[in-house]
Design goal:
about 240 residues, single chain, globular, mainly alpha
Length: about 240
């Protein structure tokens, strides 16, 4: 009985050390990739910058260099290297706990904007590597996987809004998830902020308002055109 807390302490300490190592590796790799591109960043360079052995790099990033890119993406997306699912993050808990559906979507828009600000530069580097035709299928798979995860992840807020009775009439959970997936595309964020010159605050307010108008009951505007039943043919 006395040894059990010690084992838990040892296990927790190892997890903290592993997370710290992943964080250090991810930060070093991100800086090098942003400076030199994906192709111009080597595993040896990252190991040296992170102060770890190359073997440690391969252990922490299964799959070689694409695995390293995945680590960089995941850590940048989450904001840290802690093995905590997105659904267990404080921001998500705050959205779930908020009783007002409108405020829920405002908080969701704020969270999405923060993610885009963190991940944008990394995403551009990975897209550039994929479009360069380097033949590294790992990067193509990583980008495809992130899109699949985004689509699956969009189901969570759609489900939650349905459970609290906030979805507007005629809008299914699946279609609501599709709306969320499309509106929270990083490409939309980049075009509005990078090309149209919007600030991050402008984007966040637009995203919140658009999500509210699109998803919530009693927000006016009716259903989008593709969801409205066609008129009955004239006699």
């Amino acid at each position: 009985m006395r040894k059990q807390p010690k084992r838990r302490y040892t296990s927790d300490l190892r997890q903290e050390q592993a997370a710290a190592t992943r964080q250090r590796i991810a930060e070093a790799a991100r800086e090098l990739m942003l400076e030199h591109g994906y192709a111009g960043t080597t595993m040896a360079d990252v190991a040296r910058a992170a102060g770890v052995a190359v073997q440690t790099l391969y252990t922490s990033c299964p799959g070689g260099k694409p695995g390293l890119a995945r680590l960089v993406y995941d850590v940048t997306l989450a904001g840290d290297a802690q093995p905590v699912p997105q659904s267990d993050r404080p921001q998500v808990h705050a959205i779930i706990a908020e009783p007002d559906p409108t405020r829920k979507l405002e908080l969701y828009a704020a969270m999405a904007t923060g993610v885009f600000q963190r991940i944008g530069a990394v995403h551009r580097v990975l897209r550039a590597a994929a479009s360069a035709g380097s033949g590294d299928v790992g990067i193509d798979e990583l980008l495809a996987d992130t899109e699949r995860q985004r689509l699956v992840g969009s189901r969570g807020p759609a489900d939650h809004l349905a459970q609290v009775g906030a979805l507007r009439a005629g809008l299914t959970v699946d279609r609501a998830a599709d709306h969320i997936y499309a509106l929270t595309s990083i490409e939309v964020f980049e075009r509005l902020t990078g090309i149209c010159g919007w600030s991050a605050v402008d984007y966040e307010r637009w995203l919140a308002r658009t999500l509210i108008d699109t998803l919530l009951a009693g927000q006016g505007g009716g259903a989008p055109a593709h969801e409205v039943s066609p008129p009955a043919p004239a006699d």
